Amino acid sequence: MTKLKRQNQWLNPILMVIIAIISSSVTALMIRSQGLTLSNHQSSPVKEVSPKNTPIETVAALGRLEPSGEVIHVTVPTVLQGARVEQLFVKLGDRLKQGEIIAILHNYPQLQAALNQPIIKWLLPKPN
């Protein structure tokens, strides 16, 4: 029994040291993690900046874009089918005004003549 008592005498201090090391390590880790979270919450004051009133020139987006106003459908009349663009006066992204000419078709002279024919007939004197 004396041998067992001697082992217990050495075992108790070793267990105490191990428990002390573990508890101090856990305490140190908790304090350190609390310090990190506190430092994350403390930030410098934010300076407010007002946005500039500059027009948007381009939009880059994925998905479907829909205009906020009215949608205008541009179609080619059946008279103009097969017509080719002779001159193009606008570029992609240009803003247009109402009545602005955007292109001239290759058959413009023939179409203009067909449009002017009734006017010419009206202007010519009528036979009595």
TrEMBL record:
Swiss-Prot/TrEMBL keywords: Membrane, Transmembrane, Transmembrane helix
TM annotation in the entry: 12-31
Stated name of the protein: Heterocyst specific ABC-transporter, membrane fusion protein DevB
The organism of origin for this protein: Crocosphaera watsonii WH 0402
Highest classification ranks of the organism: Bacteria, Bacillati, Cyanobacteriota, Cyanophyceae, Oscillatoriophycideae
